């Protein structure tokens, strides 16, 4: 995979989407089941190791290439794209903040070999949705640790091979003094505490769990979670999520344009009234794509500059990206439904955007936009940047 260009990787993702992910999308959504076919195909093409450096046996792809893969997958199945994006977020955290330690060097090589899937357990009952605080704490005993966490959701938790988990550094640490650690599936017990029967993103299979794990203290990332969050988890999450949301919007617009062309064939020589709405939808989609692309390039150019990544201006920029993209995908898909009319409203029509719209509404709830806006408002009060 390493010699592949961004364009070539996109072609691979499209091929998987057309052959495997797209045909299974309706079933994944209807049955709220894990997309075994899609993740299996991505694993077979070694795309789960896209961000793992070549020296560890991974594909060594650029971040922008992975963002493009997420956008491509989003056109076929939002749940599969979300699982892929969330896995890559975890891989990015390990690669950027732990690759120089002996344990994680061996782990990355093993992860690349088996194309393992990593889930995230950052949310917790009792903190009101604030992932920058924790109730649970790491209990150390010499060189080993134990940890129990009440997580309201763990996306694809039952199907993951390993987990990245946030917790307080010590039992007497304040809630904001957090570490992030790797939990191996073989050392982890999951007790499901609720169900996952949702409006959209049904295939992510994200119920809550009581998670108990143990391991070596070498599995704790060597930098504070605050640094991992600001430099990697927050920007990577917002960019990859926005990328797959752009894919959802793009496919909705594609269906709307197909509907308009079909209507035009029925009345040769005339422009259907819905064509004007299609132009508006295309303009909105173009703006959404440009915003995501600009943010991706900004992050790539600043990856090796911790000062730039921890600046308030950058944090606000990433927050704005998430809020704008999550609102835009709902607007664009909704507009596409108006263009297609009942054909877009029906679930079995070739122009249906019902699933797209249900998935789109989940975007604003993933780290609630109101919470993000409040955080940005606080930063604006003290930020001196333009």
Distance between the termini: 41 Å
CATH architecture field of the largest domain: Up-down Bundle
Q: What gyration radius follows from the Cα positions, in whole Å? A: 21 Å
CATH fold description of the largest domain:
Butyryl-CoA Dehydrogenase, subunit A, domain 3
- Figure out the total of helices: 12
Number-wise, the strands total: 7
Plain-language structure description:
It is a single chain. With 386 residues, this protein is α+β, with helices and mostly antiparallel strands. It folds into 3 domains: 6-116, Orthogonal Bundle (Butyryl-Coa Dehydrogenase, subunit A, domain 1); 119-219, Beta Barrel (Butyryl-CoA Dehydrogenase, subunit A, domain 2), CATH 2.40.110; 225-382, Butyryl-CoA Dehydrogenase, subunit A, domain 3. Helix content is 55%, strand content 11%. It has 12 helices and 7 strands. The chain has helices spanning 6-31, 36-44, 63-74, 78-98, 102-114, 225-266, 274-302, 306-309, 312-340, 342-345, 354-361, 369-382, and strands spanning 118-121, 139-141, 144-151, 162-168, 178-184, 188-192, 209-216. It has a 4-stranded antiparallel beta sheet with strand order 2-3-7-6, with no helix packed on it. The chain has a 3-stranded mixed beta sheet with strand order 1-4-5, covered by helices on one side. A hairpin with a 2-residue loop joins strand 2 and strand 3 (144-151). Helix 9 packs antiparallel against helix 11 and helix 9 packs antiparallel against helix 12. The model has no long low-confidence stretch (mean pLDDT 96).
């Amino acid at each position: 995979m390493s010699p592949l260009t961004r364009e070539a990787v996109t072609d691979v993702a499209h091929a998987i989407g057309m052959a495997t992910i797209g045909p299974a999308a309706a079933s994944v959504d209807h049955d709220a089941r894990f997309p075994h076919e899609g993740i299996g195909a991505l694993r077979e093409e070694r795309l789960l190791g896209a961000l793992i450096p070549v020296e560890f046996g991974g594909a060594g792809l650029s971040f922008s290439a992975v963002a493009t893969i997420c956008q491509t997958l989003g056109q076929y199945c939002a749940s599969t794209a979300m699982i892929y994006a969330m896995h890559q977020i975890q891989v990015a955290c390990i690669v950027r903040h732990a690759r120089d330690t002996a344990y994680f060097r061996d782990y990355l090589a093993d992860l690349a070999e088996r194309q393992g899937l990593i889930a995230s357990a950052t949310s917790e009952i009792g903190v009101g949705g604030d992932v920058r605080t924790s109730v649970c704490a790491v209990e150390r005993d010499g060189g080993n640790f134990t940890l129990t966490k009440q997580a309201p959701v763990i996306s694809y938790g039952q199907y993951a091979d390993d987990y990245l988990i946030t917790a307080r550094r010590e039992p007497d640490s304040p809630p904001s003094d957090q570490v992030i650690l790797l939990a191996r599936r073989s050392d982890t017990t999951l007790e499901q505490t609720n169900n996952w029967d949702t409006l959209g993103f049904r295939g992510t299979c994200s119920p809550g769990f009581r998670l108990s794990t143990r391991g070596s203290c070498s599995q704790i990332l060597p930098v504070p979670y605050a640094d991992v969050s600001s430099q990697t988890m927050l920007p990577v999450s917002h960019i990859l999520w926005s990328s797959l949301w752009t894919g959802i919007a793009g496919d909705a617009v594609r269906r709307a344009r197909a509907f308009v062309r079909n209507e035009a064939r029925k009345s040769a020589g005339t422009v259907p009234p819905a064509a004007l709405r299609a132009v508006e939808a295309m303009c909105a989609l173009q703006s959404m794509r440009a915003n995501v692309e600009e943010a991706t390039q900004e992050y790539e150019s600043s990856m090796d500059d911790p000062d730039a990544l921890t600046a308030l201006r950058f944090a606000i920029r990433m927050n704005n990206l998430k809020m704008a993209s999550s609102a835009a995908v709902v607007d664009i898909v909704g507009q596409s439904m108006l263009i297609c009319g009942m054909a877009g409203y029906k679930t079995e029509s070739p122009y249906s955007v019902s699933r797209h719209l249900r998935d789109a509404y989940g975007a604003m709830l993933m780290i609630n936009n109101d919470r993000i806006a409040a955080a940005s408002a606080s930063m604006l009060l003290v930020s001196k940047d333009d």
